[in-house]
Amino acid sequence: MAIYQSILLAIDLHPNCDDLTAKRAFDMANQCGAKLSIIHAVEHINAYGVAQAYPTVIDLEDQMLKEAQEGLAKLAAKYNIPADQQFVEIGSPKNVILNKASEVKADLIMVGSHGRHGISLLLGSTANAVLHHAHCDILAVWLDDHQHKA
Ligand code: AMP
Questions:
Q1: What is the pLDDT of residues 1-52, one digit of tens each?
Q2: Whole-angstrom Cα distance, residue 1 to residue 41?
Q3: How many percent of the chain have pLDDT more than 90?
């Protein structure tokens, strides 16, 4: 039996980092014959705890959601990931990634070593939080600072 059957790739829509992590996940899924799903979390805009009460903030979040769906679909198309395996959800990246992992019964979660929240750290805060709370294997794709700055 293949070592992994369901791989969840977490993508932060950083233009220079996603492609490398997506390529690694694609290759891993191909080699294992695993299903590859892809997730991006759109974080709530925090306006002193009352963000959701402002219609303009809700509009902005809807716009961010739409743009994220487009960005994810573009990346997914490049790696032949079907629409029903692409997910964009609002919430904290850690919770969104972990909830989706249990929903798709992921036996491997792939993340970038550090992204928007972790430049210059060995492991970014999202990657670290996922690592500490996941119930399956985690693979962090090493991204160096060049990728963030390029
Ligand atoms: P960070 O820990 O935030 O520096 O980012 C490290 C990795 O966590 C990224 O390369 C992604 O794999 C994942 N990640 C971070 N933010 C998000 C997000 N909003 N949605 C999905 N994955 C994310």
A1: 789 999 999 999 987 778 899 999 999 999 999 999 999 999 988 766 665 5
A2: 31
A3: 67
Distance 149 CA to ligand 1 centre (A): 16
Q: Is residue 149 part of a domain?
A: no
Domain count, the chain: 1
**Domain assignment of residue 47, given as a range:** 6-143
Alpha-helical runs (H) found in 33-103: 55-78, 93-103
- The reported pTM is 0.91
Pocket test of ligand 1: the residue of 7, 8, 11, 12 to mutate, having most ligand atoms within 8 Å of its CB, is 12
Q: Which residue's CA is the closest to the ligand 1 atom numbered 12?
A: 111
At residue 146, φ and ψ (nearest 5 deg) are -60, -40
